[in-house]
Amino acid sequence: MEFIVLVHGLILFFVILGASFFLGWFIVNQVQTQRPFVGTRSELIFACLSLGIIVIGWLAFILAEVGFFSILALILLWGGLCLFFILRIQRHKSGWRVTAACLADDKRLLSFLPNWVESVALGIWLIVAVLFFFRPHQFITGAADAGVYVNLGVNVAETGSILIQDDVLASFPTGLYSAFLRPISNIIAPYYILPGFSVVGEPAGEIIPQFYHLHPVWQAIAYSLGGVQVELMLTGFWTLLGSLAIYFTVRRLVGWEIALLALAGLTLNAMQVWFARYPTTEPLTQFLLWTGLWSLSVWIEDTQERPLWGLLAGLALGQTFLVRIDMLFILPIFMLFGVWLWARNGWKREYNWFFLPLFLLVLHSLVHALWQGQPYFFELFGFALRLLSKNWIIPVTAAIGLLVLVVGLGRYRRQFVQLVDRYQRPLLTILILSFILWAIYGWFIRPNVGEVIYWNDPYGETTIPQLNHENLIRIGWYLSPLGVWLGIAGISLWLWKVNGTTAVMLATTLLFSIIYITNIRATNFQIYAMRRYVPATMPVFIIGGAYFLGWLASYKKSITSSLALILALAWLGGFVWLSRGFISQVDYQGILPQIDQLDAKLAPGSILIFNDPAPIGQGDLLGTPLRFLKGHYVLTLRDSAALDEDLFDQTLQQWQEQGYNIYWIMVPDGHTWPLSDWHLKEVGAYNIQADVLEHSFYNRPTQVINQQWRGEITQIHKEQ
Fold first, then answer.
1. In terms of Cα–Cα distance, which of 96, 44, 61, 56 is closest to 80?
2. How far is Cα 542 from Cα 555, in angstroms, rounded to an integer?
3. Domain that holds residue 648
4. CA 149, CA 140: separation in Å to the nearest integer?
5. Angle at CA 107, nearest 5°, toward 104 and 113?
6. What one-character DSSP code corresponds to residue 716?
7. Are 78 and 59 a contacting pair, CB within 8 Å?
8. Whether 75 contacts 20, CB under 8 Å
9. Which is higher by pLDDT, 658 or 116?
């Protein structure tokens, strides 16, 4: 059965790849006009695929924003775009062929292997990657980001909209909110009905799902094509493409031999494998980020002759802002990059190929946040915005400083560039020493002097330890200590050799890494917290390790070559050893049919009321898939002391008159039924079990535990 699902999913993903390639190829044809495509044929194929995927995702996202998403509407838009490009090609007789101007391998750090080895190695890698990446965790339960994403994707596919209109909630009296909805400290949405699904109150019944929403829109596409099983496989698809994007980046910068070594380390790494199966945003972010960095490294070499690469870089990097809110942290890198180009060369028209799509997508992400993601946006940035509003002198001073900088560069930009060029080596020396000292502090000193800080779980009644002082050590749980320090050595070496093609890549990935190694900004339980390191940190450490090993081997002396070989085997062996238990484990395997069995006991479109007093209980965990995968309306009696029994009685009466079947689902140690006039008819019991990797705060997880959810289903009715 698992093999059949895999084959079905792969076929559907080939359909997505085919549709994306053709659309991307048309775009390449139009942008390049008479210029040959600068790159190899494999790069041409991947560029076409990436362009098509980005455009299709953007179209689907806009459809979902305006409430008209459907797979048919998306196909019609795709077909219309393809027809437009076909007619344009015919009209201008620009030709149907895109030629690839292959670049010489002058950047290869190593060159002792024949070129056919690359094709064979990539073929072997593809087989291994499919086996590793396409075994998804069956994560459909709520109360965690992964389950929220999956269920939201289903809802977008079923309703066509990101925003959710709940008919039962619309008729639900506000006087019952305090008993049935969980209060949260959010200035936009004071309650949630389920974790990740915020209730704003007005308009009545509207629910705003958490997060930025490009990832669940893609999940909606996958669900529309092949159901929830294919939707769960989507992150494996992104991880495959993300790995290739990293491969092409390294290949372009230092050659395919080191790129293959980095690809091997990446594929064998526990974090890469685990989150290939885990339905959150990190794999999609990795694909978009590294596709953007790869294309940017090509474009910056010749901005005038390579407009396509600038367009691809701007679209890919810009679209990351529709996936994750924390990408705003790296926006200053691109701003400084633009300032540097202007200071060195003045502003040129060809720069718009990169900066215009980047600006439009960043602007789109802000519009989307204020339109359909206000609770999430203000939850994360509200404190900072309130702080700045009270301390207005800070933004005013920053604005004045920026204005002075721009004006000063406008008058003295040539002197500034000459100053930087003159003192480049001393500045790089200071930067590298600072990076190495930061790493030494994070590995040897901070774990011993840092303190455990506890903060209150916003969705529960527990405290969570923050172990930020151990973050670099914890990366070593998955990269190995050798992997961490080889990565630091390689990054330092690359910083010393930095140039225009590598500066933005290193700045972006290192800023991302330093921010999250300093403060993980999430619950610290393993391996969940490590997802923060999947888009940039883990890849750049692995790339750094591969680069250092390649640099060592490039001396072609017996002692350095032997040392490089020994270190490479130990490095790869460390990844394999630390991946034990992560490659073999698939969380929540078999839960889908158990949810089907529970749903079979219920009438379609029913109202389910869990009696669960737990801060995060079955009403959240099982209620989320029952709401979005099975189409029931789900409530949880969270606080019986706050229940207005007369108002609850009237509401039940109204629902019964409207023809709803109403169920009271009793969990162990739950609230007792509050209304004596309403009778409970026993329907049946359920006992759902699933094996999951342990959630551990203080150690690398090794144990697989069995989770169980059991309860009694009763139907509520009142004699007329």
1. 56
2. 21
3. 145-218+590-717
4. 9
5. 80
6. E
7. yes
8. no
9. 658
Residue type, 714: T
The conformation of residue 445, written as its DSSP 8-state character, comes to I
CB 362 within 8 A of CB 320: no
Q: Tokens 């998403």 map to which residue?
A: 69
Angle at 541 between CA 537 and CA 543, to 5 degrees: 115
Distance CA 295, CA 290 (A): 8
Give the number of other CB atoms < 10 A from CB of residue 708. 8
Q: Which of 164-178, 381-395, 642-656, 669-683 has the lowest mean pLDDT?
A: 381-395
Handedness of CA 483, 487, 489, 493 (dihedral sign): positive
Q: Which helix (H) or strand (E) holds 103?
A: none
Q: Is residue 368 within 8 Å of 324, Cβ to Cβ?
A: no
Q: Is the pLDDT of residue 104 over 90?
A: no
The residue type of 638 is R
Q: Is the dihedral of CA 172, 174, 175, 181 positive or negative?
A: positive
CA 523 – CA 133 distance, rounded (Å): 25
This prediction has a pTM of 0.95
| Coil vs helix vs strand at 613 | coil
476 lies in a domain?
Answer: no
Q: Is residue 196 part of a domain?
A: yes
Q: Name the one residue in this structure whose structure tokens are 């890549």.
A: 505
Does a structural domain hold residue 41? no
Mapped onto helix, strand or coil, the DSSP state of residue 525 is coil
pLDDT confidence bin for 550, thresholds 50/70/90: very high
Domain count of the chain? 1
The DSSP symbol for 535 reads T
CB within 8 Å of 224: residues ≥ 6 apart: 70, 71, 157
State the amino acid at position 628 in one-letter form.
Answer: F
The predicted structure's pLDDT at residue 201:
79
Which residue, 716, 715, 712, 714, is CA-closest to 648? Answer: 716
Closest by Cα among 62, 87, 88, 227 to 157: 227
Query: What distance lies between CA 544 and its chain's CA centroid?
Result: 22
Residues 6+ away with beta carbon under 8 Å from 66: none
553 phi and psi, to 5 degrees? Answer: -75, -20
CB 140 within 8 Å of CB 588: yes
Residue 163 structure tokens: 């925003």
Is residue 99's pLDDT more than 60? Answer: no
CA–CA dist 254, 207 (Å, integer): 49
Q: Using 50, 70 and 90 to split pLDDT, how confident is the model at 110?
A: low
Return the residue matching tokens 């921010």.
515
Residue 459 has pLDDT above 70, yes or no: no
CB 361, CB 323: distance < 8 Å: no
pLDDT of residue 412: 76
Q: Which amino acid, residue 586?
A: V
Given a contact cutoff of 8 angstroms between Cβ atoms, the answer to whether 301 and 500 are in contact is yes
Strands 191-194 and 607-610: unpaired
**What's the 3-state SS for 33-55?**
CCCCEECCHHHHHHHHHHHHHHH
Asked if the structure places residue 548 within a domain, the reply is: no
Q: How would you class 113 by CB atoms within 10 Å of its CB: exposed for 0-12, middle for 13-18, buried for 19 or more?
A: middle
